[in-house]
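Figure S7 source data.
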Amino acid sequence: MNRKFFIVANPYSGKGKAQAALSMLKKRLDKENFYYAIFITPKSEILDEFIEENLFTDTTDVVVIGGDGTINATLNALRGKDMVLSFIPVGTGNDFIKTIQIGNDLSEQIHTIIHGGERTIDIGICNNRKFINGVGVGFDGQIVHDDLRSKSIFSGHLKYLLLVLKILGSYRSRKFVYYMDGQRLEMNLILMAVHNGTTFGGGFKLNPDSKIDDGLLNICTVGRISYFRRFFNVGKFSFGTHGRLPEVNFYQVKHIRIETNDALMAHIDGEFFGHPPFEITVAEKAQRIRVKR
Ligand SMILES: Nc1ncnc2c1ncn2[C@@H]1O[C@H](COP(=O)(O)OP(=O)(O)OP(=O)(O)O)[C@@H](O)[C@H]1O
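Tokens for the predicted adenosine-5'-triphosphate complex:
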């Protein structure tokens, strides 16, 4: 079958690195005589609807040049169409691709897009919206919320890290009421990370043992923790060694329901996603992606 590429490029992701990536990808696709179409994303709350409207039905390969938010919008635009997703990560955090092998630089990543192998991965679903990496509720939802509104002389990852430190020093634990595979729990938590992937926030490996094709969601909860212990242990979350802390618990489930609480903020694949209630499940082996052979 002749392959047809549809390229979704976000000019805003990661301070505009998409243009250079797009030029190089176009050159390589031209050289190999592939058909392709390009969609440059507009700033919009309904990005997935714009992508879906422009997607040709005979597309075989959808390439995302952007960060996790652009991957999320593209994934939701596919609405079950059987197309292979591949990635050039030019976002700020790029947390999802830390779970897979696509190559370390632009040239290798383009090689993977054209000549890579296929892998079929699980997809999470939260209140009918799909996610590829995860949903964060509590502390990291608050960061995404505040990041959207804060003005700073810094930008990108540095702005994000400064916000993490600021909120780390003030965020209080909140009551979570939730059902994991039907079992009711009620806990005061700083955060709950529900993952298909492993990492949030550009490198915090909250669920280091998560696998993207095991049919399960990995959950990390962090309970009430003193301000001193937060700052002292924050590095452990980057290395994924926080499991030794008594405030941390890990779970693997197929379904979680988090009850209504307007004091809890959430994000889905790094995009602000409001407040619970959330009904979160996993669709096993639901999406083909392109990875390094
Ligand atoms: N043309 C555009 N101008 C401004 N914003 C845009 C444009 N196109 C898309 N967006 C916004 O970009 C956001 C997604 O950015 P994306 O997540 O891909 O990059 P990032 O935030 O730099 O990376 P990451 O999520 O990996 O940290 C969405 O909120 C979307 O509305």
